[in-house]
Each structure stands twice: as structure tokens, then as C-alpha cells.
Amino acid sequence: MDERRALSLVVGGLVLIAVTAMVSWFFANFERRTERIPVGYSSEARRNALLAAERFLKALELPAESVTGRDRLWHLPAATDTLVVLGVGPMSTERQARLMAWLKQGGHLIVEAMETWEEDTPPAGLLTDLGFRLRFDAGEGADDDDGTRIATLDLADAGRPVKVAFQSGYALEGRDGDEILAAAAGRPRILQRRIGEGRLTVLSDSGFLTNTSIGEHDHAYFAAQLLAPEKGGRIWLLYDSDMPWLGALLWGIAPYALTSVAVLAVVWLWSLGRRLGPLVTAPDRRRRDLIEHLDASGDFLWRHNGTTALVDSSRKRILGDWLRHHPDLAQHGSQAQAEALAAFTGESVERIYRSLFAQPDDARGFTEQAMLLQQLRQGPRRGKLSAQP
């Protein structure tokens, strides 16, 4: 008993030593640490270039919301709100008038100029009508390797100069009285104009608002100062003002109707695949013999009243042969001709008359008529006739 207990203690001790050694070796060769692996932008960030700006503004407790499509341009927000548009795009005269009325009521529109000014073909749109022009100078240098120019701004609440980067070469032109909010290399990059109670702010470049650049320089701070709405207002970030495709428009207007149409289409396609009635027997590809073919042809002609023409042509040819070999028959009528032929062939006058001058009533009569006509076709060359006048 003591030996067994001693053996158990020895084995247990060895196992404990082995486990302790393995744990010590593991911690001596491995360490626990956290690594950050870049996986790129999320699908939402790839779709929305202003997502980081939206979240930053919300962190500052500024009400902000990203939207897409042109609905926000058609149904304008409250006059206390700020509307940021990356490219306003073409607008009808009525839409422009409504947008101008919204600005005069106190709205703040921030829009990026997208098309450069060409003297021969100036771009059409709201900014052109208001006298704003986007100029491009290819010879303008850059302050950084990324091709940007740095604008240094003096903001009252900043306590130090605020730096904002703009794409090199692009600058704005406006009218007298427009306020220059940002300039780089002596050229305006942001212009602002008072329209009634509201403001129109035009950007030469909106890159400082996007996900890739808002964390650089003082972009985030400047964006918060520029986009801040009036008291009680909201910030609308319209990151894509392109017209959505027709399917998206219809789905937004009548989703239940589209669902019903889709269900009906599926049911219709399913009904096309269903079998109606018995299966059609596969045709027999074997060649039929001549008798079977003639029988089928005769049956078809009988069912479609095609025998009359065949019988008439046969009777005319047979009767013509008889008259050519026995000219005296031509002087008599049908009944006398039938009597003469009956006397020659040994057939009854009634059968001869019915085969040459009458139509059969049924298939059996047609068969008898055909057989008798065949006999008469072979008979005109044999002997002479004596017809009754």
C-alpha cells in the first residue's frame, strides 16, 4: 500500500514538473501584445466621402446627417440648417429659384465648384449664373509633396493660425463684395456671399472635408467652424447628388407595387413551365410503304372533299377514250351511253351510270366507283358497241 502511494506521488510530481516547465517555456518564448492591422475603409466609408466629418461633428454634439441623391435639393431643409453639396449638378430654373428663396430666408449652402471656366464654352449652372468661376493654373507650385497649397487662416477662437490644404492650381473668382474665407498663394480658395438672410459658400476644393484628409492639419477644426448651423439647425452632408437609377426611384416611391409585379412575373414564368394536357406522342420516324401512304392520302382527300376533282378528271379521261374508239356513242345521251357500256362490260346500267355521271354518297360507294372506272379504262379498245338510240 505504501509502495503504491509512493509511486502515485512520484508520478504526480513528474507531471507537475512537466506542466510547470511547459508553461515556463511558453511565457519565455511568447508575449502577448496588441497589433493594429489596417484593413482599409469600410464599405460605408468607401461610399460616403464625408462619413468621418459627420462622426466628428456628432462628437462635438453638432446635429449632422449624411444623405445621398437629389431629394434634399428638391425638398430643402429648414432655413436654419447648413446644406453641404459636393457638386450641385444641373438644375432647372424652378429648382434654382427655390434654392435662392431658401438662401434668402437664412439657409447656408456650401457647394464645391466642379467645372473650370472656359471662355469659349463656359459651364452652365447655378454658380455661373451667380458670377462664380473656377480657374485652373497649371503653373502654380505646391507646398507639399501631395500637390496641395496651404492656406493660413486667422480665426478668432483658434488662438493660433489655422492651416488648411487645398489642391494646387485651382482658385475661385467672384464678384466685388464676396468675402474671401481662405486664400493660398494669393488666390482665393473659399468665397462666401450674403444672399438675403443666408449665405452661399463656394469651395475650390472640398478635399479637407473628406475621410482621407479631415485628420490632417487643422481641417477638422476648420470644418466645424465653417459648417456650424444657426441655433436649432442641422448640418446636411450631401455627399452624392447624382440622380439615382430608375429602379431605386421606383422602389422608394412604390415598393409594394414593385414587389407585386415581381411576384406576378415569377408566377407567370412558373406557369410557362407547366404541362397542359397529355404529352404529344413522338412521331414514328420509320418509312411507310406505298400502300399505307396511298391509304393515308386517300383518307385525307376524302375528309377534305378532295375526291370530287380526282373522280371528275378520271371520268372525263375514261369517257373520252370510249368516245374516241367508239365515235357513235357521242350522238347519245348519258343514259344511252351507260346502257351501251353496260352491254359491253356486263355490268348493270345503274352501276355504269353512277360511276360515270353521279357522285358517291360514302366511302364504300367511292371505292366501288374507283374499281369500276378502272375496269372501264381498260375496256374501250376491245370490240365494238351497238348503242340504242
Automatic annotation (TrEMBL):
Keyword Membrane: yes
InterPro entries noted in UniProt: Class_I_gatase-like, DUF4350
Gene3D superfamilies per the UniProt record, alphabetical: 3.40.50.880
Domain DUF4350: 44-227
Coiled-coil stretches: none
TM segment ranges: 6-28, 248-270
A matching Pfam family: DUF4350
Keyword vocabulary terms for this entry: Membrane, Transmembrane, Transmembrane helix
Protein name: DUF4350 domain-containing protein
Organism for this UniProt entry: Thiorhodococcus minor
